[in-house]
Amino acid sequence: MSFHKVIVSIISILATFIQTEFQSKSSSLFETHCWIMYTFYVVLFTYVVAGTTLTIQVRAAAAPPNRGNDNNERVLTKVGLMSGALASTLLLLIIRPVLGWVAFAFWVLYFVKTAYELVHADAFFQLLETLKNAFLQVIEKLKNKVRGQSKDVLPVSVSA
């Protein structure tokens, strides 16, 4: 069973629990849990778009023999799974806040791990090295400019 089926099942089960828990209350979820609901809809939309895009890419890549978009598929899969897991966590925050915050903490840890896996460590260190070299070049140019201006500022002796 794929993770996407599990995520969709969890979201539907939690949505049913929310519906039964809040059906007797006069206030809506948008009044009591406004930021959670708006975030849930954005994350759910991201999950659906990532899943749809991934499905289209997989079907398009199945036709020609050469597949050069494995990295795109990997990123889309991770984005879809992360957004689906976050959507489930947000619903859990509404039903049981303490358990939801614990699940959110685990989601953040997994997100950091996944982001680190997606960004190659070598590329990250190469980027840091490039930024360091650019910063040193800017500092060197500033030093040269200050030294050059200080030489020009010195009084010039005029012989009469």
Set down the secondary structure blueprint.
Elements: H1 3-22, H2 29-32, H3 34-62, H4 70-95, H5 97-118, H6 121-153
Helix pairs in contact: 1-4, 3-4, 4-5
What's this, in brief?
Keywords: Membrane, Transmembrane, Transmembrane helix. The chain is mostly helical and 160 residues long.
* Range of strand content: under 5%
Number of domains: 2
Number of helices: 6
**Protein structure class:** mainly alpha
- Largest sheet features: none
Number of strands: 0
Report the principal-axis shape.
elongated
Radius of gyration: 27 Å
Q: What low-confidence regions span 5 or more consecutive residues with pLDDT below 50?
A: 152-156
What is the helical fraction, as a range of percent?
Answer: over 70%
N-C termini distance? 96 Å
On the 0 to 100 scale, the average pLDDT is 79
Q: What pattern of helices and strands is seen along the backbone?
A: HHHHHH
Give the quaternary arrangement of the chains.
single chain
Would you write up a description of this structure?
The protein has 160 residues and is mainly α. It has two domains: 3-118, no CATH class; 121-154. 84% of the residues lie in helices and 0% in strands. The chain has six helices and no strands. It has helices at residues 3-22, 29-32, 34-62, 70-95, 97-118, 121-153. Helix 4 packs antiparallel against helix 5. The longest helix is centred in the C-terminal third of the chain and has 33 residues, at 121-153. It is elongated. The N and C termini lie far apart (96 Å).
Features:
2 domains; 6 helices; mainly alpha; about 0% strand; about 160 residues
